[in-house]
Amino acid sequence: MTYVVTESCIKCKYTDCVDVCPVDCFHEGPNFLVIDPDECIDCTLCVAECPVEAIFAEDDVPIDQQNFIALNADLSKTWKIIIEKKDAPPDADDWVKIKSKLDMLER
Hints:
By secondary structure, the protein is of the alpha+beta class. The protein contains four helices and five strands. The protein has one domain (about 5-85): Alpha-Beta Plaits (2-Layer Sandwich). The longest helix has 9 residues, at about 65-75. The protein is globular.
C-alpha cells in the first residue's frame, strides 16, 4: 500500500512531509505535491506532519478524492523529486479551508 496526497494540498503546498520521508518519494509541482507509489515504503511518517491533513493511506482515501490515487502516480513520473522542506507559498494559509481546488491544480 502507498500513501496519497489529496486535494487539501493544492495551493497550500506545505512541505513538512518531505522532511520526514526516508525514501524521497515526494515530487513537487507548481502548487501541489504528490507521492510516487513505486517509491513509497508505507512508513506513515508523512501523515502526521501534514498540517492540512492531505495525506491518506491508499485504502483510506475518501471516496470523493479517489481520483488523486492515479493523479499522484501520473504526476510523480514527470515532476521533480523534492527532498527538503521549503517555505509554503505566502498565501497558503488562505487556502487551507477551501475544499474544491482541483480546478486550480497547476501541472
